Structures are given as C-alpha cells and as structure tokens.
UniProtKB/TrEMBL annotation:
One of its GO terms (molecular function) is heme binding. It comes from Odontella aurita. InterPro entries: Haem_peroxidase_sf. This is Uncharacterized protein. Residues 151-178 are annotated as: Disordered. Residues 167-178 have a biased composition (Low complexity). GO terms for biological process: response to oxidative stress. The lineage of its organism: Eukaryota, Sar, Stramenopiles, Ochrophyta, Bacillariophyta. It comes from the Eukaryota.
Length: 178
C-alpha cells in the first residue's frame, strides 16, 4: 500500500488458525438480499468498518494498477454525471444508473447514504489515504486475537517498509512461545 502511494502504516504480522469451528457456532447468519444499498452498508458494518472505511476500500488498486489515490472516486462521479437513472430495477430500492459501465457495488456508492463520503474522498486525497490506511490496517489485523478480548496487534508499531539509512525502520522478530 505504501509503495502505491498510500500512507505509512504499522505492521503486525501473524496469522490465526482455529483448532475447530466452535467459536463460530453463535454467529448470526449473513443476510443476503437484492437491495444493493442495504447490502453494501450491512457488509461494511458486519466487518466492523465505519461507512467511511468501507467506502475507502472500494478504491483498492486492481488490474495491475500501481498507485493508490482518490482517482477511483473522481472517475465514479464523472461516470455518473453522464448516466441516467434506471427505474426498471424490480425488487430493488436502488436507483441504478444506465450506461455507467460499472458494477452494482460501485453504483451503490452513489446512493444517498454513501454519496457524501464519495464526494469527500473525490475532493480530498489526504482524507482518502488516511481513511484507507485505517481500514486496511483494521481488516488485516482484526482476526489476530490474544485471548477473548484483546488483539495481538495492540500497541505494535513496526514499519511496513524499511527506510534507507534508518535502522529503526527494520522490522525485528521476537521469538514466540507455543
């Protein structure tokens, strides 16, 4: 992320492997429906993300892109400007846009609930990068448990990229006990 232009982020390496699936027994079922707006917001909340963090992650570089920026939000807004609302979407409260050439999830960002966030990110790359860094860090460390209530990454501040000439930026590994 940093190499693609994102903000400097701390790194907490590791993985969690459950011995069995008992911890997921009490989880509620995932709700699926054809209301893209509600599903998009629900999926963000289910992951523990704020709406801002969830929207930021939509701009994750793909298809060989090497730069992280708010370009996605600018292009999404520009595509919507030349599009018309399609009222034929039966069973959906969304007003999907025709001729956008984008996916439903992208179009969901242009609905009333999320549009102010898209506008903010399109107008402020720094805000986008800061929010993206928080969301990305949360997603990659949220399952690194340390007991029933703690996260193994609390208080960890290891740089993700070594800075040339800065010995403090070189990650060090400490032995772990099993």
């Amino acid at each position: 992320i940093e190499a693609a232009g994102g903000n400097k982020m701390s790194f907490c390496g590791g993985r969690v492997d459950a011995k069995n699936g008992d911890a997921s027994v009490g989880l509620k079922p995932v709700i699926y429906n054809n209301n893209t707006d509600a599903s998009t917001v629900y999926e963000m909340a289910q992951k523990g993300l704020s709406m801002e963090e969830g929207v930021a992650l939509f701009a994750t570089p793909a298809d060989g892109a090497t730069e992280l920026s708010n370009r996605y939000f600018k292009e999404l807004k520009a595509a919507a400007e030349g599009s018309t609302i399609d009222g034929s979407m039966e069973g959906s409260s969304s007003q999907m846009y025709k001729n956008m050439g984008s996916m439903w999830g992208d179009q969901a960002l242009l609905q009333e609930t999320l549009t102010p966030i898209v506008d903010a990110f399109a107008n402020d790359n720094t805000l986008f990068l800061e929010t993206y860094a928080m969301a990305w860090n949360y997603m990659v460390t949220s399952d690194l448990f340390d007991g029933p209530t703690k996260n193994a990454c609390e208080g960890v501040d290891t740089p993700t990229v070594e800075v040339e000439g800065d010995p403090s930026s070189t990650p060090t590994l400490s032995p772990t006990t099993s």
